[in-house]
Design goal:
Blueprint (H helix, E strand, L loop, with lengths): L1 E2 L6 E2 L2 E7 L34 H14 L3 E5 L20 H13 L3 E5 L20 H17 L5 E3 L21 H16 L4 E5 L2 H4 L1 H7 L5 E3 L21 H13 L7 E2 L7 H12 L7 E4 L10 H12 L3
Parallel strand pairs: 3-4, 3-10, 4-5, 6-7, 7-8, 9-10
Antiparallel strand pairs: 1-2
Helix pairs in contact: 1-9, 3-4
Length: 328
């Protein structure tokens, strides 16, 4: 249990999962894993004019989460809703707000706290349609603020709001046909705009922490402590001893050391693991972080399978839940 900073009351340790409703976040990137997806199957990994989401799979996975003792679900929204403030962002099959509110009530009845996620990284924002090509303009700021305010209302002022903000680098967008990367003061200006907009609603901002990987000193000096951090790493090894720079473990320290660094700097964390590339990662993440992060700053764990909520991938989503269940 953790203490609530405002009330002093105990808050449950978080055991959460990131699940996707919207998926128009990798539009130009050929995400071919081990050569599995070819031809028509590649369309699953590109932008679509319809919602790629199966409610039956969603109910099965969230039911398994309840049975496992998990207590939080981060919902990647993207194009999944018919936003009243910006209906132009909807696609065929996007849910009405009324229908979605009913689903939020169902999740809460399962003991799952629903948390919204809208990814405002320029690497993952094609769900914003034409506004994704208007980044850092007055129109962009207005649309983003409208959406944050509306979503906070739909979720009845959630405890957290996940802003994404990961992988905004030229390297991560190298295969895209349209590249946008904010850097320097513009990155911080826009980031603080999002933080301020969320906090004005009485909600705590939550982000992926990978900006730290390339800007550690800048991150520690300028990142507000109010922002909840999720460093992420999906490998099997947690050996952070100085590696052979030519060997397979050369990046382990770069991605795992931040758990320790962020703790020493006083940031609250929800470390994130995945079964995307290794079945050893989730258990390793829990064990490593429990050993190396102060209990008062370790707020919980998040599992991010990164598979769409569709029948072909239901087994991967259930497998992710099962893997974290053994650590609860």
């Amino acid at each position: 249990m953790n203490k609530n900073a405002d009330t002093g009351a105990e808050t449950p340790f978080i055991w959460g999962a990131l699940l996707h409703m919207g998926v128009n976040m990798w539009s130009d990137i050929p995400l071919v894993k081990h050569g599995k997806y070819q031809g028509e199957d590649m369309q699953l990994l590109c932008q679509a004019d319809h919602l790629r989401f199966d409610e039956g799979v969603w109910r099965t996975v969230t039911g398994r989460m309840r049975d496992a003792g998990m207590n939080l679900v981060v919902i990647d929204l993207g194009e999944a809703l018919q936003y009243e403030s910006h209906p132009e962002l909807a696609v065929r099959g996007s849910w009405t707000i009324e229908r979605f509110r009913e689903e939020l009530a169902r999740l809460r009845s399962l003991g799952l706290e629903p948390i919204p996620k809208l990814n405002f990284s320029t690497a993952h924002d094609t769900w914003l349609k034409e506004y994704s090509r208007q980044v850092s303009t007055s129109s962009y700021y207005k649309v983003c603020a409208d959406l944050i305010r509306e979503v906070c209302g739909i979720f009845d002022t959630p405890r957290f709001f996940h802003l994404g903000y990961d992988e905004e680098t030229a390297g991560h967008q190298a295969n895209q046909s349209y590249i946008v990367v904010r850097q320097g003061e513009l990155w911080w200006h826009d980031f603080m705009f999002f933080v301020k907009t969320v906090e004005e609603r009485g909600v705590r901002p939550w982000i992926w922490s990978d900006y730290y990987w390339n800007h550690p000193e800048e991150f520690l000096a300028r990142m507000p402590k109010s922002v909840l951090q999720s460093n992420w790493y999906y490998g099997a090894s947690f050996d952070i001893e100085p590696p052979d720079e030519t060997g397979p473990g050369r990046n382990v320290r770069r991605f795992v050391q931040p758990y320790i660094d962020l703790d020493k700097a006083g940031f609250d964390q929800i470390p994130t693991g995945s079964n995307w590339s290794s079945d050893l990662n989730i258990g390793g993440t829990v064990d490593f972080c429990r050993e190396n992060i102060s209990p008062e700053r370790l707020k919980g764990f998040l599992i991010a399978p990164w598979y769409f909520t569709l029948p072909d991938w239901q087994w991967k989503l259930l497998d992710a839940v099962d893997q974290i269940a053994v650590k609860i």
